[in-house]
Amino acid sequence: MQDGRRPMVAVVDDDEAVRESLRFLLDVAGYDVVTFDSAQNFLNRIDGQAISCLVVDQHMPNTTGLELLAELRQRGVGLPTVLITGSPSADIVRQATALGAAQVLEKPLMDDRLLRFVASAASGEGA
Known about the structure:
Elements: E1 8-12, H1 16-28, E2 32-36, H2 39-45, E3 51-57, H3 65-74, E4 81-85, H4 90-98, E5 103-106, H5 111-122
Parallel strand pairs: 1-2, 1-3, 3-4, 4-5
């Protein structure tokens, strides 16, 4: 934490209930949370924000989590990222790893695994 500010976590998920659940969990754990309902909304608004890490859903309309990761990497953004999905196939895990995702977590999420990732990313240690 710099200047007394809490680290910021971005959550991208098209499911409002998941976004709000993650917002609550991360807020209680001491993080500022900004949520987005689509990859495009995230891409349109991330400039200039000091985001410590990204939690992104794989299965979203229009742009998947993997496509978002690919776009971020193409833009030179190396944000620590965890991909969340209800169906973590070996292919999704392989692609996410190739795109630099630190982890792929299966929904429903185990809070402790997600919080460990966020804490590590926010402290600058990677995940």
